[in-house]
Structures
1.
Amino acid sequence: MTSVSVRDLSLNFGAVTVLDKLNLDIDHGEFLVLLGSSGCGKSTLLNCIAGLLDVSDGQIFIKDRNVTWEEPKDRGIGMVFQSYALYPQMTVERNLSFGLQVAKIPQPEIDKRVKRAAAILQIEALLKRKPSELSGGQRQRVAIGRALVRDVDVFLFDEPLSNLDAKLRSELRVEIKRLHQSLKNTMIYVTHDQIEALTLADRIAVMKSGVIQQLADPMTIYNAPENLFVAGFIGSPSMNFFRGDVEAKDGRSFVRVDGVAFDVTAYPARTKLQPGQKVVLGLRPEHVRVDEASEGHEMHQAVVDIEEPMGADNLLWLRLAGQSMSVRIAGQRRYPPGSTVRLSFDMAVASIFDAVSENRL
Amino acid sequence: MDNMFASNNTLTAYEKETRRIEAGPSGRKPRRRLSRRNIIVYGTLIVVALYYLLPLYVMIVTSLKGMPEIRVGNIFAPPLEITFEPWVKAWAEACTGLNCDGLSRGFWNSVRITVPSVIISIAVASVNGYALANWRFKGAELFFTILVVGAFIPYQVMIYPIVIVLREMGVYGTLTGLVIVHTIFGMPILTLLFRNYFAGLPEELFKAARVDGAGFWTIYFKIMLPMSLPIFVVAMILQVTGIWNDFLFGVVFTRPEYYPMTVQLNNIVNSVQGVKEYNVNMAATILTGAVPLVVYFVSGRLFVRGIAAGAVKG
Amino acid sequence: MTALTRGSVRPNQWLRNLNAKIASIPMILTAVVIFLGGTIWTVVYSFTNSKLLPRLSFVGLDQYERLWAAPRWIISIQNLAVYGFFSLVFSLVIGFVLAALMDQKIRFENTFRTIMLYPFALSFIVTGLVWQWLLNPQFGIQSIVRSLGWTSFSFDPLYDADIVIYGILIAALWQGTGLVMCLMLAGLRGIDEDIWKAARVDGIPMWKTYVLIIIPMMRGVFITTLVIIASGIVKVYDLVVAQTSGGPGIASEVPAKYVYDYMFQAQNLGQGFAASTMMLITVAIIIVPWAYLEFGGGRKRG
């Protein structure tokens, strides 16, 4: 059963197309993250689902009910905003209950719901305070509470953690995950932060210029990006890309880049790589082995340019095949600049894209 | 999660899967152009706009009619016979007391008042605002507070002492005296405007210039001035309209031969002698309002910014 | 924060930051001599019996007693109160409603704003004269309505002592509401758009959102606007001079005009000083509580 279904959704502002024939089905209880850089249409899509923006074309279903023309309040959604959007002159309690009172829900029921939400979010002690007397994290809890009391099936989050500092962000991230596990609501979560996306999501929809580039679970997105954009967008530091040509020799396949031949025989290609084909080979920094003798893998020599020790990890910037690449190794292994290292690659987890279509091969 | 692996090829699948639209609401929510909301919003705004435009329209129409037509007709009716005679008369022949050389004298007086007043008041206030924003010294904030609070004191309270000061300086009744008065009363708002603007510029810029060895005036002329053209334009709009429209100071601090346009206009229209020539009066009124109106229509958004700046608090 | 000391020898305290001090001389002179000194001077001389020239012969509160016994002053004060009350109420209400309408993502917003604000660019003299003409009973609105068949229609505020102040009010609102609208619109635009979205998701009707959420959030804008309008009201002078010259009779006199007439025409300086001191007190009553709320008394606003 789908909880939210977006069908052929288009949105234009005048001549500008923001969303183009977009389709998306979200299962009941699923945590879906819309991920992309600013201007990719992710917030626009969320606002369309919420009913805050009128769509130009297509339909939206929530719980199998066509809500395309419904007002936001009638769609069975709750929404949490980046700027919290709490009503500043009202106490926390009134912030939570105001919408319910306007909807003429009986007072005992309102009290019950506010109490429950406050208990879940641990904000009971703050109920009499005004938003200005709360910290950022507390405010965002109240904002979540306001969605919670609406007793709805679908929660929409519009970059809820972006206004918080790094420490609070990771705390609240865990809390949102816990909330999802206990409530089992459908949640749609917009963010530009890939860590949030990877940690929270059941599935991630990576968006670019109004089009979903890939919709998959986090591990698939990370390990098997569908195209060059997704590959480059996810992961920090980003994937190393090598542009080259496919060569076949002695039953083995190679990608030749500026004199260096990468043996890609082990790569699980969907379609056979054609000799002469122009491709982009993508290697994540942690999928490169440094100075580890391993059978069957050829070794490439490279010189360390810069070393960035980060505690748990150590990031090496090397030069290979005429370009700079990053390699992630364990923190205690140190290589001063200038040292020579021997690299081997795990092609089973590499990615190869067609250089023209930029799609995964 | 059963879709974990199935989703690998979602993109292509989704691209092809088009006709998923079911019966029922689809696409843009139908909205009648003439919804009740639109009728209320635009209806009100149009009525209000007409109310605002009406006086301007009546002014123009009246000024283009001959007196006989005005006597029999309707002030809203467009002129049957357009005549520019009232304009000529207002500009060159209308009488105030014994002088019958029209508004032109007042116009040139206003120009001679406005130009130096605007230049001097802005020069003084911009340097002052710069000193307050970047070269704070002990006591500066106190004087500045007095200045800003002073902006709220009714002019009537300070007029007579200023008369005495100007008389002592020997410039009471002259254009110089009036320029000084405009500079004084323009100072609170302009200083505030410039102080806030300069304080909003990145402080690093100022510090970097200091480190490079630049002094007070070098930084002002070489760094601050080139960066603050917009605020100078805002200040100019504010001052040109404000000084041009002034009446009280013109009446108090100048002799009749130096009366600015507003004072002369009032004397022409409200003079008790002679037959009232409404068409000439309206032509004179438009002529007096023309300068600030031109400034307003040309400057557009900057004018709004100017008055908004006038409304900000320190 | 003052200038960094140059070299190792600490230069003379007074010479530090000398240029900034020189640049501030006009401000210091204005603030101290004109604003502070002038105000004190006027207040002091309001206790003297100065006539043609200021003289320091004190007569206690005589001038004030005479002032409050003068029918013309009483009328001026009444006019100011009526004019002040209605222009505050109307310009705030109309200004806010217009701003709210302008905030409905309308087309031609710039055109509407240009039209509503242009009177503000005009001189009060121009405004006064135009409305004098429009309200002229012989040719203006009254005669138009009568010529349409309603022959008993009467609307000649400028010639009716009982309602003349409302005639001035109409002109003042025409000139000033555009400004209030602009200030309010800027305030509305400053409100986080997410608040509107949250209210829509909560299902709060638009008017309720305005009344219960948006207006309380705009408290600061309202107060600032109020102070701006109020200090303008006390100063009202040109408009009355142009529109009615205080007439008919003394029916539309206002305090500012009283001051001018006594200082420069009736040659009774003491009365002028006393009246202007009363104006100062009126402004102080408006400004002091505002300044206290805004700048003193702690920052406990939400």
2.
Amino acid sequence: MNVGLTRCMTLSRVISALVLAICAFMPFLAPAVGEPFLIGMFARAMIWSIAALSLNLIMGYGGMISFGHAAYLGVAAYTVGILSFHGVTSAWIQWPTALIVSAIVAFLFGAISLRTRGVYFIMITLALSQMLYFLARSAELYGSDDGLTIARRSATGLSFLNLNDRVTFYYVIFAALLLCLFVLWRIVNSRFGMVIRGIKSNETRMEGIGISTYRYKLAAFVIAGTMCGLAGILEANLEKFVSPDTLNWARSGEMIFMVVLGGMGSLFGPVTGAVVYWLLQDKLADLTEHWQIIFGPFLILVVLFARGGIDGMLKRRPRDA
Amino acid sequence: MNYVLFAEQLLNGIQLGMVLFLLAAGLTLIFGIMDLVNLAHGSLYMLGAYFAATFTQMTDSFVLAVVISVPLMVLSGIALEIVALRTLYRRDHLDQVLATFGLILFFRELVRIFWGAAGRTIPLPPYFNGSVSLPFGIDYPVYRLVIITLGLIVAGGLYLVVQRTRIGMLIRAGASNREMAGALGVNIPLLFTVIFGIGAALAGFAGMIIAPLTTANIGMGDTVLIQAFVVIVIGGIGSIRGAFIAALLTGMIDTLGRSFLDDLLALFLPVNAAEAAGPALSSMLIYVLMAAILFFRPQGLFPPKGAKA
């Protein structure tokens, strides 16, 4: 039993390492297999991995089901876009500002929504993020429905960090992903992380032992929002475009799906989930123009029968999440 | 401010409120009694509109199309409940949210395959076209008055059914304590199926009656679903009375905000600043209202008796 569990744990680790390795060498692998578009796809998948990782902190570890996580990605992307629109192109100004803006938005939304729980929490996070979506749609100066084109990627002023170079930018994203994984690993295993996980399993008991759970949840919410902001900065730079669609609730739904697909509450799961999600979407879109007619039921089947996600299957434990 | 215009916008607000109520009533029943978060409720609204469009085309009569579509919506709702949703009752909210999100993608694509990506317009019969003169010199479109009237009739009917009939008694029993109602011999699975059928019909009906004004289109369910969420959160989940009052409140604030907020802002701000900020702020108004209400009453304005917060 114990031996079996250990072996399965390693299988999950092997897959994680494999996914990371593929991400690391993609700029060389993709031309080698003759499909250079894979570089762009993996860049996107890694950005969404960061977003999914941040969501996993509050949802997988903290049990807070936020259906509005696209909001923080969107505001950060818009911050980059708007600053660039007004002629501020330096990464050293754009990036910190965007992170601060998404942290502030996460603080405000968290302060309101964390007063509630359960289904109210789901609906309120959804409604608040949708509020920003409508705000973006009515912001005429910044392109309203048509979105805002960003003239050039953030300027770092360093010759070895030219984001307009495809491979350099790819490795910036990869480094950001590693950084987020490291930060989350530290958070989850810290005292703070213990408290967050404790709140998920029994909030009343955590309060009973004298912990102000609201503050811990809010802190986790802000950390997650800020990290998702980083994904937004990268997204804006990758696409050189930001539109209200970035904030749409369907994006939040996709993020939740990536987390669940990879395995809730497993550190690396969301990355696997995001990569598999983009590969799957790509393959289905090749198959038929109406790929969502397959994807929708697939999503339902994953929910019904693969509760622990990919990570759960690799660990071969019964459904216990 | 022009008072005739104000009265017209107030009526428009009530009309939007009625549509929101039809949607929110089903949503709040399904959540309050079955404990199911159904994101696909907006898809049923969309489906209703497309049914109405097709049958109007086939029968040349919008009224007849609605009469045919409502029972069809009940059947679709029941089928959906049996095939996809029944297994979700015992799952947690995250599973329900994700699975019904999957249903949205499915329905959206289904509509695209059957009806195409372009929206469908529904012509109104001549007797619903034109406008009537109301007191105080207000001219108001007949059809919008029809929507308000239909909304009031459904609200009244729903009230009578829930308060005065046996099925209503079972619904209320199910809402306050599902296990106890089951233990007393109520066929809970059947009750759930019936409630879901009613909810689907209400949502579909809302989509049908709004479609002549807005066209039947694929995105129509999304916006209104979120507004309906705002309504039931404000009204208190599980309460039909709360849904009714909150729907009217939300409908009026949204409509009046869109029409008059820039005028109102112009009292304090330079005109061009007010005109720029007006549309942006008015689209956020109902969410600000929701946040404010939640701040003081996290359980909503009228939480049903005996419900857990």
